[in-house]
Amino acid sequence: MRSISLILALLLTAWINQSLIAQTHLSWNSASLMAGMDTPGKLSDSAELSRVLYTIAYGSTGKKFPKQVLEKIDSAHIARMVGLIIKDTAQWQLHARAIEPLAEPYQDLRRTVDSISLAGSDSLLQWTTISHALNEYRIVNRLAGQMTVLVNIPSATLRVIDPAGHVLLKCKVIVGSPHTPTPIFVANLTRVITYPYWNIPRSIAVKEFLPKIKKDPSGYLNAMKLQVISPQGNIVGPEIIDWKRLSAKNFPYRLRQSTGCDNALGVIKFDLDSPYDVYLHDTDHRELFSKKYRFLSHGCIRVAEPVKLANLLMGKEWLSDAFTDERYCNLPSKSYPLPNAVPVVITYAMVEAEAGLVYYQDIYKAFANRPVTFNR
């Protein structure tokens, strides 16, 4: 009987060990999926393990970081974690957790995913959406040690994240429409401009403004507070221009909207060191922030809380809450450099954690050819 009991005990122990191994590999596969890996890799293979851990820590990104944006990649830390996991694979989760981003949007989503079961026919589709979102948030970890502005297009929200990963500000934004989308990029925010001019992009000037100006030059220009600027940089009176001869192909001028009052940029502009001519700014139509559909701009990003954002960037209570309400006309535009450049990351994450998983519409059809699910 003792021998039979011993055999049964050994068989039970072996079964438990095999179950634990299976669970470990299942968890590792899940972690690899959330890292966006096509194949999970082997815990015993240092090269594959390093690849997965690097992605878990810093994401796999096609975003180009300009030279001005300082990336901080701790390859030595990844190598140490690889060594520790190979020595003791049972503790891989503990070591992998140690390299994950601290940013709250990432951690909130990660914890929510851990706490729910993604079962059913849509589970693979959900994994695709979640892994992409986690990967987007991991990019912030490349900027560790810096305050970061994170703008997520599908949710039309902005977050300011401090070096410890805490969200200092979360507010609504208005981003580009499907026809004039906000580009996905990383750039430094370098200065704040109060009472900015709006230098109207040429494409908007000739397609939207020029046909209306030609119908009533002085009337329309005055109503819109627009100035006509010559190639030499001088203001030109509309009465001396032969508007009938001008067209989209023949328009040597540029248009500039006067500061304050009804200026489309409002009274605060956040200048980005970006090649896209895209920036963050206040707006003269604040009522639009109450809408659920906030994909309305030509590509720039309108901020619902510009004063709070400006004060965080400056590191002090610089502007009063009433600053955006006191819209004077034609005040001089002033530029204020930031104490330190702040990276801005534009992301396209279609799921966030807010008392559960919240999915957003693929507004730009970025995943039109990929299986994803939405409930919002």
TrEMBL record:
Q: Which controlled-vocabulary keywords does the entry list?
A: Cell shape, Cell wall biogenesis/degradation, Peptidoglycan synthesis, Transferase
> Residues in the active site?
281, 300
**Listed InterPro entries:** LD-transpeptidase_YkuD-like (IPR052905), LD_TPept_cat_dom (IPR005490), Transpep_catalytic_dom (IPR038063)
What range(s) does the L,D-TPase catalytic domain occupy? 147-321
Q: In which pathway does it act?
A: Cell wall biogenesis; peptidoglycan biosynthesis
- Its Gene Ontology biological processes? cell wall organization; peptidoglycan biosynthetic process; regulation of cell shape
What the entry lists under CDD domains is as follows: YkuD_like (cd16913)
Q: Which SUPFAM superfamilies match?
A: L,D-transpeptidase catalytic domain-like
The question of whether Secreted is a record keyword is answered with no
Q: Name one GO molecular function term.
A: carboxypeptidase activity
The regions listed as transmembrane in this protein's record are none
Family membership noted in the UniProt record:
Belongs to the YkuD family.
Protein name from the UniProt record:
L,D-TPase catalytic domain-containing protein
Query: What organism does this protein naturally occur in?
Result: Dyadobacter luticola
